[in-house]
Amino acid sequence: MEKITSFTIDHIKLQPGVYVSRKDKAGAETITTFDLRMTSPNEEPVMNTAEVHTIEHLGATFLRNHPVYKEKTLYFGPMGCRTGFYLLLTGDYASKDIVPLMIEMFEFIRDYKDEVPGASPMDCGNYLDMNLRMANYLAKKYLDQVLYHIDDSRLIYPE
């Protein structure tokens, strides 16, 4: 079997950033998959499921209500390794194109203090596994350490 694209990235060199993971065609439409890497693989502790779950609920709610991107958002969810998230958008994008959107989304998550959307037994299959304070903290860390001063080293996968 061929190695899938995400397994060909050098995770030893990979640092937190915003990367185009792949581009696919669905009919005439391009689908861009982004790797929103929040922790340094195999160096930092991975994020716990409660904060990942909270970021997923808040990020998906933010994106699906965004005036520009709500119709372009196909998916936002965690990586199995718990070092970041995948975002799938319709359209042909470069990493730098979505940095303003990611700043806006992670500021929303950083500043969010209300009940987590969808955190109820009717809306979610694991609604008790949430940690808003840790999600706020991780969003702030990603903003401060990556998004606010991002450069090409955090926008293009390492060779």
Description of the structure:
With about 160 residues, the chain is of the alpha+beta class. The chain contains 3 helices and 4 strands. It has a 4-stranded antiparallel beta sheet with strand order 1-2-4-3, with helices on one face. A hairpin with a 2-residue loop joins strand 1 and strand 2 (about 30-35).
Structure summary:
Helices cover 28% and strands 20% of the residues.
Kindly report the spatial arrangement of strands forming the biggest sheet: 1-2-4-3
Apparent shape = globular
Q: Report the portion of residues in β strands.
A: 15-25%
Task: Tell me, rounded to a whole number, the average pLDDT.
Answer: 96
Major pleated sheet: 4 strands, antiparallel
- Helical content band: 25-40%
Helical region count?
Answer: 3
Find the structural class using helix and strand composition. Answer: alpha+beta
Question: pLDDT below 50 for ≥5 consecutive residues: which ranges?
Answer: none
Distance between the termini: 23 Å
In terms of topology, how is this protein built?
Elements: E1 17-26, E2 29-37, H1 49-65, E3 73-78, E4 84-90, H2 99-111, H3 132-145
Antiparallel strand pairs: 1-2, 2-4, 3-4
Helix pairs in contact: 1-2, 1-3, 2-3
Name the features:
single chain; alpha+beta; 159 residues; 3 helices
